[in-house]
Amino acid sequence: MERQGLHQRGRKPLRDALCRPAVVAMRFNPDLKARHAQPREAGTTAKVAIAALMRKLLPTASALAKAGGLRTPKATCE
Known about the structure:
- It is a single chain.
- With about 80 residues, this protein is mainly alpha-helical.
- Helices cover about 65% and strands about 0% of the residues.
- Helix 1 crosses helix 2, helix 1 packs across helix 3 and helix 2 packs antiparallel against helix 3.
């Protein structure tokens, strides 16, 4: 099996800025935790799974910046 990894081209400052928030979001956001677990169970490396979270986090952060507000968590049905 060929080793998977992050592509070294692209915007390094953007990758550096999104890496730590992606790891924190993976720990505390249940939706993103599930999104991280899915490729890990399929056999991808942790780095590639975190890169997928970074790609998911970017449009979310952009939408929050445009809206000028904080994310409100989903309501739970009890």
